[in-house]
Each structure stands twice: as C-alpha cells, then as structure tokens.
Automatic annotation (TrEMBL):
Molecular functions per Gene Ontology: alanine racemase activity
Pathway: Amino-acid biosynthesis; D-alanine biosynthesis; D-alanine from L-alanine: step 1/1
Pfam family, any one: Ala_racemase_C
Modified sites of kind N6-(pyridoxal phosphate)lysine: 46
Gene that produces this protein: alr
Cofactor: pyridoxal 5'-phosphate
Statement: the UniProt record of this protein carries the keyword Isomerase: yes
Protein name according to UniProt: Alanine racemase
Keyword list, A-Z: Isomerase, Pyridoxal phosphate
Root EC class: isomerase
Active site location: 46 (proton acceptor), 268 (proton acceptor)
SMART domains: Ala_racemase_C
Length: 385
C-alpha cells in the first residue's frame, strides 16, 4: 500500500465537523407557508425546532409571518418562555400529571385529549387556556370519537365555572403527505363533525386547526383558522409539491487521504472492496453524529465539486469516501448534506438512502452533541430581540 499523496494545508483552513443552520432559509420557508395558509400560522418548533434550534427557529418564524408557536411537551413550551418569547404557545402532548399550574402561570395553552386530562387541568390553580384535541383518524393522540361529545360537554361545564377557557379545537391528518388518499377527506369530515359537536355543546373555540405542512401546501379545505407547520419551516415538504429550502449544511474535513490498490477491503465487515486502484478519504462523522448507518453502501458526498460515494459501512465516528483518481488535500472540505445548491446531497437524499424520512435525518443531526454548530442568517433578528 503506497503512502498518501496529500499535502498539509495552511493552519486554520479546516476545522472539525460543522453543522450550519441557515435561518434565512427558515425565514423564506415561513413566508411561503404564511402566504399559503388561509388562517394564522403556528410555527411548530418541537424536538429543538426539528434539530435546528427551537428558539432560533421560533424567533425567525415569528419575524416572517408566524404568530403562534407549537410544541409537544410542556417542558419545551416553558423553555421558549424562559428564552423570552411571548407569542402564544401551545403544548399538545403531556402526561396527565404534567405541571399544569406552570402552564397557566406561564401563559402556555395546552391541548386536552380526554376527561382525565381535563380534570387535572381544571384542578390546577388559575384558568387554563385549552384546545380540545380530537383524533381525526389515526388512533394516535387526541380524543377517540366515542369520547368526544362527553369531553366537549365537560369542558363547557368547566368553562362556565370559570376553570378553563376553551380557545381551540385541534386535530391532525394521518395521510396528508399523499393528497389523493381518501383518508384526508375522512379526516376533514371527522374534524368538521368534531367542531359541530363542540358548538352544539355551547363551546365557541376561536382557533380551529387541522393542517400541518403537507395539508397547508395542498389542501385549502383543511386550513380552518390556523395551520401548524414544522417540517416546512426547515425545508421539508412531505407532500413533495413545493420547493422549500433546506436549512442545514454538514461539512467535515478530510482527516486522511490514502492511495489503495484494487481489491482493498474497506471498513467493518469488509462490505466493500475497491474494484480499481483509488484514493480513499477519511471523514470524521458517523452515526453517533446523526449520519444514518442504514445509508451504508448507497450514500454520496460532495468533495471538490464532485459527488463521490461513501464506501464501506458508516461507523460510529467516521466514514470513508472513494475519491477515484483525484486525491484531495488533507483538510479539504467534504460536504455531507446541504440545501443542494452545489450538488451536495440533501436531507431527502439521505432519507432515500437510509429508508427513512428527512425529518428523522435532520432531527438526528440536530441532536448530535459532538458537531460544532454555527447559525447564519440571523442578522435581521437582532433588531427584534
Ligand atoms: C409535528 C406536528 C405538526 C407539524 O407537522 P409538520 O408536518 O412537521 O408540519 C403539527 N401538528 C401536530 C399535532 C404535530 O405532532
């Protein structure tokens, strides 16, 4: 095996793996979604803003047309309040013994999916603002239809007693990424029935929301008074109909480059063997950094302006790139993922290679603790504070 042909670059030219978050992309995506939504726009910043930074994404979205924030857990909602965000916030998935009094005292709206949750919220001091949550047909979160009328009646009684204010009714569509699926019409119909049932119980919820990103982009009949969008903010369109802009870029330096002969086994299990003499670059990012291991054998990266295959398995901390005949310098930047402008792979490409959805790719990268992070495009936010 011959030695590397790489030369050592100037100091400071390269650093370690870097995850960049482009808030200008989030801003542009928010504008587009706000234009498409018939009603208000709730920016869903759960899971740390889909890995992009909940507070950064929230501030950016609020500066570009969103007026509400949405999260899963109360802890996520309280973190937004602690960061100084004052926009309306809704938290929709909590255990029955959650700290409802913290929600009330922090001005966080909560979703109520059943009588037990309602009783717990009512028992908390103060007057909670609640959104009754109906299951629109995916047997996941939200009240089962058989329990809905009783929930509405009980919520109305509590409202009359001044214990809660029912400000909203929410549902969620299970198949909106496939606009032609009949499941969407059934979901819309069930939601309309749920609203009618709430009305008949004497409730007058101002905020009625069913659509997430896909339905906001494809199905105006689902919009009602508000859309809850998360994926779209960070450039993911589950419906595949609209060009949104990816906001993450993952780069890393080549930490070694070597020339190898044909027949060289690469990586764990020797899954790959070089079929010709070639150059291999080692890149210090792996599945512990959110790079899907299931993409082994299929993934590509961008090096020196060209797409090159990853070879061998994705390891915990590293991957190997087949450079072919043209080696690169040590420290040369390898782009593993980005918006696609220069031909680099996107989150959608990684999702295809690993049999998942881009949501899982970006939340995985975003949760990685070893990646250095840099946020760009926030200049317009400074004046807003
Ligand atoms: C995650 C989530 C959303 C946002 O969905 P996107 O497809 O990411 O826009 C909206 N509503 C609920 C209930 C959710 O769990």
């Amino acid at each position: 095996m011959s030695a590397t042909c790489a030369s050592v670059p100037l100091a400071g030219v390269s650093s370690g793996p870097l995850l960049q978050v482009d808030l200008a992309a989030v801003g542009a995506n928010t504008r587009l979604l706000a234009d498409r939504a018939a009603g208000d726009l709730m920016a869903v910043v759960k899971a740390d803003g889909f890995g992009h930074g909940a507070v950064d994404v929230a501030r950016t979205a609020l500066a570009h047309g969103a007026t509400w924030l949405g999260v899963t857990s109360l802890a996520e909602a309280l973190a937004l309040r602690a960061a100084g965000l004052r926009a309306p916030v809704l938290s929709w998935l909590n255990p029955v013994d959650a700290d409802w009094s913290a929600a009330v005292s922090s001005g966080v709206d909560v979703a109520v999916p059943g009588l037990e949750h309602l009783a717990a919220v009512v028992a908390a001091p103060g007057r909670a603002r609640v959104h009754l949550h109906v299951d629109a047909g995916m047997a996941r979160d939200g009240a089962a239809p058989a329990t809905w009328a009783a929930l509405c009646a009980a919520a109305r009684r509590s409202e009359r007693q001044g214990r809660v204010e029912v400000v909203g009714v929410m549902g969620h569509l299970g198949c909106a990424d496939d606009p032609g699926d009949a499941c969407n019409e059934r979901g819309r119909t069930r939601f309309a029935w749920a609203l009618e049932t709430a009305r008949a119980a004497g409730l007058r919820p101002r905020h009625r929301h069913l659509a997430a990103t896909a339905a906001t982009l494809t199905d105006p009949r689902s919009h009602h008074t508000m859309s809850r969008v998360g994926a779209g903010l960070v450039g993911i369109d589950p419906s595949g109909t609209t060009a949104l802009r990816g906001a993450l870029t993952l780069t890393a330096p080549a930490v070694s480059v070597r020339r190898v002969p044909a027949g060289t086994p690469v990586g764990y299990g020797h899954d790959h063997r070089t079929d010709r003499p070639t150059h291999l670059a080692l890149v210090p990012v792996g599945y512990a950094d959110g790079l899907p291991r299931a993409a082994s054998g299929r993934a590509e990266v961008l090096v020196a302006g060209r797409r090159r295959p990853l070879v061998g398995r994705v390891s915990m901390d590293q991957v190997v790139v087949d450079l072919g005949e043209r080696p690169v310098d040590l420290g040369a930047t390898v782009t593993l993922l980005g918006p696609g402008d220069a031909g680099e792979p996107t989150a959608a490409d990684w999702a295809d290679w690993s049999g998942t959805i881009p949501h899982e790719v970006v939340t995985g990268l975003g949760a990685a603790t070893r990646l250095q992070r840099r946020t760009t495009g926030a200049a317009h936010l400074r004046s807003l504070a």
